């Protein structure tokens, strides 16, 4: 008789490992506070802690997007994820002092060790299921063959669980593809049939109170009447410039920057807005059945990106304060106080497709279904469109000539 297999080809765990509906086998990677001392033994810890056997049949449980439970795809049993109380939730997502963390090299934050595999093609570091040594990278579609290795990093404070499943994300991609002009038909077919990978992607958020002194010029438009070359009067718009200086201030809250170099930063950050009010304290139950990427942009690098974004915003504020029809901004001296940060995992559905040697990605916000992606252009479709436009123009010209009776007999 054939042996019963779990949904991913695994045999259910022995009866001794079952726990009557409770989550069993949650030992795994290790989390500790920085400075607690000693190396972790995560390399010998067994499966990553986000892979749990079903208490009813032993197959692997997975988080059910949009719910607060783990689902066994083999027998349908569900296990509710324990919810933290309000006080614990508030403490988990509290802001951390940025200056202290930067001085200590991040050592003031809690650390954790997880088992990850590194993609040699794009540099992504992602968690794989225990015992899996060969798979496809969700970020660049390159084959990954190798052993997992322990990765020690700042522990995420909070996670935003997936709210849409793979089917809903695929429907969002199909709608997005339907609006693309001049994309190769082959790529569209491949993208529609390709699988999406659910990945918890690392992000950093930053808060700060900003104040900036600026100096520049305000330009006000006025109109004068001059004589043209033909001697006729005509109106000309000119700009009257005058010095301007002042101060602007702003409270920045949750300035997001992606903690991954395996995704284009402009694409990953364009998935916003995120409903960060629904953040949950970090618990690997939310990660069950999904992959999670370890950050490759550390705290100092992420703060540099966030500070640049703050400076751009303050410059825009200064231009608005200068007013007028045009502005020249000569100097902006920004000062920040009370800088804080959080480290989060946000849900992203990722599809990576190879087309004629190049990698194209499509990203889907795992909460809202917003899509952002890259695509090639079909030279043949563009050429046919140009020819069609020329043919229409020629037909219109012939019709105009026929209406005027100027067509040759």
Could you please describe the fold and organization of this structure?
By secondary structure, the chain is of the alpha+beta class. Helix content is about 20%, strand content about 35%. The chain contains seven helices and 18 strands. The strands form four sheets. Strands 5, 11, 12, 13, 14, 15, 16, 17 and 18 form a nine-stranded mixed β-sheet that branches. Strand 3 and strand 4 form a beta hairpin. It is extended, with a radius of gyration of 28 Å.
How many structural domains does the protein architecture include? 1
Q: Number of DSSP strands?
A: 18
Helicity level: 10-25%
Low-confidence stretches: 1-49, 376-382
% residues in beta strands: 25-35%
Order of helices and strands: EEEEHEHEEEEEEHHEEHEEHEEEH
End-to-end distance:
87 Å
Largest sheet: 9 strands, mixed
Class by SSE composition: alpha+beta
Number of helices: 7
The chain-level mean pLDDT equals: 76
Estimated radius of gyration: 28 Å
The gross shape turns out to be: extended
Region (Disordered): 1-47
Transmembrane segments: 382-403
Protein name: Zinc finger domain-containing protein, LSD1 subclass
Organism: Rubrimonas cliftonensis
List keywords for this structure.
409 residues, alpha+beta, four-stranded antiparallel sheet, 7 helices, 18 strands, 22% helix, 35% strand, disordered N terminus
